[in-house]
Every structure is written in structure tokens, then in C-alpha cells.
Amino acid sequence: MGVLLLAICTLLTMFSCENFSFNRDNYDTANDSAMIAEYVNSVTNPQLVDVNEALSLKQSMIEKLDIDSAFLKMPDNTITNVVSVLSKKNPVFYKEDIVKEYRRCRQVYDNLPKESATSVDLTATDLGTRPDKQVHDSIIRITYNYRTDIIDGKPVKVQIKTIESYE
Predict the structure, then answer these.
(1) Residue closest to 83 by CA, chosen among 94, 73, 68
(2) Is 137 exposed, middle or buried (0-12, 13-18, 19+ CB in 10 A)?
(3) What gap in Å lies between CA 100 and CA 106, rounded to an integer?
(4) What is the C-alpha R_g of the chain?
(5) Which of 41, 52, 82, 162 has the greatest CB tally within 10 Å of its CB?
């Protein structure tokens, strides 16, 4: 934000000069550096004149700190999911947008399957229900994994059964 404002100030300064010319010999870098330092100081340490301004500044700093801390506490895979959603809506977004989207749909993002969730072949049949004994003998391993899904607005623990066998 400050860099953008600095660029705008520089452009305005250049266009306000007579004939849009730039004379390096008469250019006072010390004066411009002092002005920039004064501006940066006024942004980072604003001058306050009354209690209302001080309280307003405090509230805005608390809000910024809240956004920063919420962003830092988000797991990497959650940030990846939120950014994926936001990038489909708008190619440009900010840290505040990520935090607001996460808070708005927190229950959904928190209950998405993690990277370690085992994928399930939905076309496979349950080998345990087949009548022939050869199938049971070919089973190497049966594993059960659990994940939490949202069904009818309520978190439900779902069991995923994986059967490995020789064909």
C-alpha cells in the first residue's frame, strides 16, 4: 500500500514540474529522502490528536492482528483449499479475503479429507459377501480408515473399508 502511494506521489511530482523536464543538477536528493522518511514515519507511527483517534487506531490494529493470527494458524492444506476456491472467483485476492472465506465456511474446510485419506474404489464389491472360499483365501489384508464428513449439516464419522487380495 505504501509503495503504491509512494509511486503515485512520485508521478504527481514529475507531472507537476514545469515542461515535464528533469534536471539532475538541481535535484536535491536529501530533501526528497527526508520527505519520504517523514511520510513512512507518519504511516507507521501516526500522529494522534484525541482519544477517539487513539481508540480507533487501537481497534484497527486489533483487527489487523486478528487477521494475521488467524492466517498464521491455518494449516497449509486449508490455505490451499481456500485459495483454490478464491482463485476461481477472482484472480486477485488478499490475506484478509482468505481469512474471511475460511471463517465463512469453516465447518466445510475443517471437515475436508486430509491428504492421508485412503481413496476408495466405489465400483469394487465387498469380497466378504461372496460365497466361494477361494476369495477369502486370496485376501491379503483388510484395513479400515475413518474420516468425518458433513451429512445433513452434522459431522458423521464414515468408515472406509479397503480389501487387498490376490487376483
Answers:
(1) 94
(2) exposed
(3) 9
(4) 30
(5) 82
DSSP 8-class letter at 117: P
Q: What is the pLDDT of residues 74-112, one digit of tens each?
A: 998 899 989 988 988 888 999 999 999 999 988 888 888
Quote the number of domains for the chain: 2
Spell out the alpha helix ranges (H) of the chain.
Answer: 2-16, 29-44, 51-73, 76-89, 95-104, 106-110, 133-137
115: closest CA among 80, 66, 84, 163?
Answer: 80
Region of residue 20 (left: phi > 0; alpha: psi -120 to 50; beta: else): left
Domain that holds residue 157: 127-165
Q: 3-class SS at 160?
A: strand
* Residue owning grid cell 483365501: 137
Per-residue pLDDT band for 68 (boundaries 50, 70, 90) equals very high
Beta bridge pairs of residue 150: 155
